[in-house]
Amino acid sequence: MKSLLAPGHRGCAGCCDAMAAKFTLMAAGEDCIVVSPTGCLEVMTTPYPESSWGVPFIHSLFENNAAVASGIEAALKSKGEMGNTKIIAMGGDGATLDIGMRSVSGAFERGHDFTFVCIDNEAYMNTGVQRSAATPFAASTTTSPSGKVSFGNIRPKKNMPAIIAAHGSPYVATTSIGYPKDMIRKVKTAVDVEGPTYVHAHSPCTTGWGFDTSKTVEVAKMAVETCLWPLYEMEDGEITKVKKIKNPKPVEDYLKMQRRFKHLFTKEGGDEFIKQIQALADENIVKFGLQ
Amino acid sequence: MATQLIKGNSAVVIGALYAGCDCYFGYPITPASEILHEASQTFPKLGRKFVQAESEEAAINMVYGAASAGHRVLTASSGPGMSLKQEGVSYLAGAELPCVIVDIMRAGPGLGNIGPEQGDYTQVVKGGGHGNYRNIVIAPNSVQEMCDLTMKAFELSTKYRNPVVVLADGVLGQMIEPLKFPETAEELAIDKSWAVCGTKETRENLVTSIFLDFDQLEDFNYKLQEKYETVKENEVDYEEYMMEDASIVLVSYGISSRICRSAVEAARKDGIKVGLFRPITLFPFPENELKALADSGDKTFVSVEMSNGQLIDDVRLATGCTKPVELVNRMGGNLITMDQVMDKIKEIAAREE
Which residues form the Pyruvate flavodoxin/ferredoxin oxidoreductase pyrimidine binding domain (chain B) (predicted)? Predict the structure, then answer.
């Protein structure tokens, strides 16, 4: 399959954004318009006058990504030009869960016909790894640093798929860049379903999380295999499909791969935090019926 | 006191801590993020409050909240983030609340890039948000001043109950220079005559900017203008360098004034009578001082700025357009070069001969 995201962009080796964008375009095909805010993805693929995008690309900002997508959809519809054109807003976790939350909520509530793909790398990577509402419990970032008294981020991840589902979205899915077929299938389903649809892609960042550039896929898979990132689909608010994990791995296997959790293994008292993280994974197993 | 090599952005946090600032609210943006990082480490360590907001609007309105409670509050951002904050800044000015906002300017418009620029001048110095208000604006040109003028900013914001903006740029934020730490630290003192503290004595205090009656709002606006006049009378600050006999006056602030200083020294070696006039406060702008200079003889003024002729407007206004005012500028994240300034100085000197 021809890639609509040209190689030669400025992404890091092993970049999660590049993979997420590539898979999204593989699913959506040529007839789509992509809106994406400032962030690694935009900076590395579209520094003027270069562009890696083989489809129309509109730059927005974090807080207005879904609003810009709403505007495009409204304009195309007003002239009856929508046809089969897919409108895709791609944003990072900040542009989706934090500063972008209001415009995302507005677009889903109004029911625009578009797909929002959240590339969740669990912190603000482009500005230097500051925490976001998607940063997991106990991860160290530049604004939730681990240290003498701190074990990193003290809050769990915001449950964005549930929030989107609560807006009445007909299709909400979680996926991971470690499972390209899964991601492509889910984005394809999302763009084909009429109305505002949502795909939340867990996307390990080699630079921000601290792992070797060859390990992006391994880390992504491990998040799923430890049940810390469950893969599921929701139709009209109900979970309809779940990826089963027969023999879940202990969360240590995932945590020890990454520098952002290093303090849990080197600092006294880290065990307690690992236990709490294991409890989160165990909760997921029950909540989503992963076994 | 101790002297240490330190980054400009870190010096802001040190200045704030010494000024008795006890609340930091912020959101990441390059090239201002180190202020957020530094605050996330130092504020909690000292028992002060650090909160990372979910957006720039949330950050400035957390500032509004904590300032309403009478605390000394800091936030920092850069171009696009400053634009997002403007509604909150107008409300802070309208409710007469003290706070310090640091703008580490980057190149615009739109996303632009993260290089240094001074393109936020008009937005910040003339107000930025809606309504008849002004920010007090101070422009450091060294790491030392990033600290000292942040302290000064807290003093002025408390004194006038008005937002104060420390207007710096990407170079000042990122560069490392020696910093002599402040001699004394200020203690936070909450003024219970207006602050809302959840106590019996502050129960009747009101933090608001709503005046439904047109005449009442007009009266309030006149009151604000009187305050700005007082600020103009008392708080103008500037620096002159080799100005005694200068027939060419470079007017420049922030990082570009550092380049001008070198240019003045080089041109003086060639026997050209050139000096530097550096506004330290951009509001209040040293207009009387520039007018006096313009009236004192034949002079050519040169606005040296990293923007599209924003400072030059204020130089023209101050001098009443009685003397020629020329422009040397760069944009897009580029620094002004010595050669650029020297070429202009030599061109004017040749014309004068």
Answer: 15-233
Q: What is the pLDDT of residues B51-110, one digit of tens each?
A: 999 999 999 999 999 999 999 999 999 999 999 999 999 999 999 999 999 999 999 999
Q: What are the residues facing B180 on neighbouring strands?
A: B3
Domain of B336 in residue numbering reads as 239-350
pLDDT reading at A2 higher than 80: no
Report ipTM for this prediction: 0.90
* Rounded Cα–Cα distance for residues A120 and A98 (Å): 12
d(CA B62, CA B25): 7
Q: Which two tokens stand for residue B64?
A: 């509004």
How distant is the Cα of A127 from the closest Cα of chain B, in angstroms? 6
Distance set, CA B222 to CA A150, B23, B226, B227 (Å): 50, 31, 6, 9
The residue count for chain B:
353
Q: Which of B29, B37, B54 sits opposite A143 (nearest CB)?
A: B37
Identify the closest residue of chain A to B28 by CA–CA distance.
A127
Q: How many domains does chain B have?
A: 2
Write the residue in B52, B80, B84 that is nearest to A131 by C-beta.
B52
| Residue B317 parent element (H or E) | helix B311-319
- Entry pTM: 0.95
pLDDT at position B321 over 90: yes
> Cβ contacts (< 8 Å) between A101 and chain B: which residues?
54
Q: Are the C-beta atoms of residues B169 and B112 closer than 8 Å to each other?
A: no
What CATH number is associated with residue B131?
A: 3.40.50.970
Domains of chain A: 16-288 (3.40.50.970)
Domain boundary among B235, B259, B274: B235
